[in-house]
Amino acid sequence: MIESEKIAEQCSVDLKIGEYKFPHYPNAIPDSYTLFYKIVYDGFHKKYPKPTQAEKERLEKEIEVITSLNFVDYFLIVWDIVKEARRRGILYIGRGSAANSMVAYCLDLTQIEPIRNNLFFERFLNKARSSPPDVDIDFSWKERDEMIKYVFEKYGYENVAMISTHVTFRAKSAFREVSKAFGISDAEISNYSRKIPWTNAKNLPRISEMFPESKSLDFSKEPWNSIVYLASRIANYPRHLSIHPGGIVITPTKITDYCALEYAKNKGLGLIITQPDMYSIEDLGLIKIDLLSQRSLGVLRDTMKMIKKKM
User: Fold this and answer.
1) Predicted TM-score (pTM) of this structure
2) Residues 300, 102: Cα–Cα separation, whole Å
3) 41 and 143 share one domain
4) Same domain, 124 and 213
5) Residues sharing a CB contact under 8 Å with residue 123, sequence separation 6 or more, in sequence order
6) For 126-138, what is the mean pLDDT?
7) N or C: which end of the chain has fewer CB within 10 A?
8) What is the pLDDT of residue 266?
9) Do 121 and 208 belong to one domain?
10) Claim to verify: residue 49 and residue 130 sit in the same structural domain
11) Does residue 156 surpass a pLDDT of 60?
12) Which of 90, 101, 97, 116 is nearest to 43 (CA)?
């Protein structure tokens, strides 16, 4: 028996695929459910000083669905993040199907009143839905990293990680990598690769027929014929890990209890990323929160600052 088989026999892993691992909102007084009810109804009375019966029933229905699906801590964590953003004067906006939720509106996660806009909560969350809620929060592109750092510090570096995305070989990257293995110089590779469009590597053998910008490419002679053939064979194979645009995961215990990690290539914040991508993270039952960035919010913030200076 080889050594790798001996090691494998000593390992026992039960990933419990399909079971949600909900993160815990820390220091909820007296408990998460009581705090959730309080802040939701505080927001409701603020947004609806004279609520109608329809508005009351809508809120009660949403709360019943959220609590029955055990998503209370998720909402508390997102609420905590936007509350901290407001405290720091950081602009944010909630978007996506979360705008269909009155609870999200009452928690200031979104800015759209759902009943007046005829938005249906079931599109965001319902008991028949198998996936967890997805609240996308946009921050200014200059301050998004600040909020991500807050999440790491608040919930613990051992419990938080950015989600990876698996970058795979496309036509241009596959062609370059295989050409390097054949000892072709960078200059010569570039002469060819600049005429290769953004397309699947499987198209390389017929690329001159498929794309006008590639008509002058001639791969009929060696080593180019072999290079193109081999490059097409590694189409969609994983090349490296990158960071998901905004996906962050928080776990109830150490994140290494659930998946493997590694440092991001760009260690500007010393960020840790998961080796599984967002789809595998969902399969593992881990809860993803999207903290995204938007340049328009940064432009709006700078404009407001300039207006105040001029006043």
Assistant:
1) 0.84
2) 26
3) yes
4) no
5) 97, 100
6) 84
7) C
8) 58
9) no
10) yes
11) yes
12) 101
At 92, is the secondary structure helix, strand, or coil?
A: strand
Q: Do residues 261 and 272 lie in contact, with contact meaning Cβ atoms separated by under 8 Å?
A: yes
Residue 35, pLDDT > 60, answer: yes
Give yes or no: residues 148 and 37 share one domain. Answer: yes
Q: Are 125 and 214 found together in one domain?
A: no
> Which structural domain, as residue segments, surrounds residue 95?
32-156+286-310
Confidence of residue 113 (pLDDT cuts 50, 70, 90): very high
Residues in the chain: 311
Confidence of residue 269 (pLDDT cuts 50, 70, 90): low
Same-domain pairing of 46 and 149: yes
Per-residue pLDDT for 296 more than 90? no
Residue 144 domain flag: yes
What is the chain's mean pLDDT, rounded? Answer: 91
d(CA 200, CA 101): 39
Distances from the Cα of 148 to the Cα of 141, 248, 260, angstroms: 12, 8, 20
Count of domains for the chain: 2
